[in-house]
Amino acid sequence: MHSQHDSLAAQRLAQISRARQSVLADGDAVGTGESYPLGMGSDFDWIERSWRRCMAQGLRPEQHVGFDLVSAQQMRRVREVHRPLVEAARPVLQGLGRATASTRYFAILTDADGVVVDTAGAIDHSDARVHSIARVGVDLSERSIGTSAISAALSERHPVWLHRGEHFFHDTSVYSCAGAPVFDANGRCTGMLDLTGVDAVERPELRHLVARAARHIENALVAGVPHRLLLRLNWPGQWDGGDGDGLLALDAEGWVTGANQVARQIVSGLAHAAGALHVEELFAAPVHVLFDAARRSTHADASVEIPLWSGLRVQIRAQIREQKRAQWAGEDPSPDAVAHADPALDAPQVALPLKDLELTLVHQAVANARGNVAQAARALGISRATVYRKLGRRQPER
Predict the structure, then answer these.
(1) DSSP string, 183-235
(2) Which pLDDT band holds residue 38 (cuts at 50, 70, 90)?
(3) Within a domain: residue 22?
(4) One Pfam family name from the record (predicted)?
(5) pLDDT (mean) for 276-293
(6) Going along 87-188, which residue ranges are E strands?
(7) What range defines the domain where residue 357 resides?
(8) Sheet containing strand 256-259, strands side by side
(9) Over residues 230-234, mean pLDDT
(10) What CATH code is carried by the domain that includes residue 375?
(11) Which of 186, 221, 256 marks a domain boundary?
(12) Looking at per-residue confidence, does 333 or 355 come out higher?
């Protein structure tokens, strides 16, 4: 078994060497030519793009890599700006350290510029090759160390696996690494998470591990933004119960304060929003329905189905952030202090104005019709144009 594995590993390194020769020495494109089976079955294009960017900067593989630290002033700024990222990632990094303890891989967290902001795992600082990259403040961007999982994840915006000679410089060809970008609650790439080994056995499955870990960090970042209501959402019948669910944070009036990448994929309006966004622009239901769902919940698994404006339906579990009790106790609510609030603390004690009641009925009719405006109009006994006008939306042209 070992001899077979060694043979496959040797073949893999030989394929990498031929690909390097094609691009770096001869200038030929291999992404559309020779089949180049990367460990995860992806194509070669993104590696080739990175190699060519390095060459366009006048870099050559034989050049020495300095693994330079950024200035102390820049590092102070990085630490201040990325404190929420570091705090959200710390328990995840510790978990990665335990998961990779026997593999000679360790974890690195960088900001969006590729500067290391934290590390974890079995890091042997007596090995200069390990010490060079596993230091807070070292610049691991593409402009500094060429092609790596770090630079690739930041430029390609998706998880990657990179092995030995797939790195641009000879100095970095001792590394094997998996990387995944980390997005903040506003959908911006705020950094990346990396697992690196030195002269280690190829472990392409680490790409899955680092991608899941990055998603966990993103969820912690969403839970950490100011919010009153946290929605966990997924398609009906597809509850993940963890990092595979969408997270959407709302303030007390229903304005979106944050969302994870899964939510942005499920609810298209999140991905295309240019400014402030209200939840009623996403769901064909009034915001009070979401708060009511949270108040009626009697256990963690309680959920409701809510229609999107597209007519599709999503399943939602809503939780109210318990702010008042924490303030009465003289404590600030932590990012994870999300619980069902007592309805008596949060429910409005005044009657709705007639205009608001009318709008609520329109929203509820559209929700009951699963986003079908024509059906909702018939149920209400009014025209489609009136429904669109009440909702503040333009009626589509026929």
Answers:
(1) E-TTS-EEEEEEEEEESPPP-TTHHHHHHHHHHHHHHHHHHHS--SEEEEEE-
(2) very low
(3) no
(4) GAF
(5) 90
(6) 105-111, 116-121, 160-163, 175-183
(7) 352-398
(8) 256-259, 246-250, 229-234, 313-320, 304-307
(9) 94
(10) 1.10.10
(11) 221
(12) 355
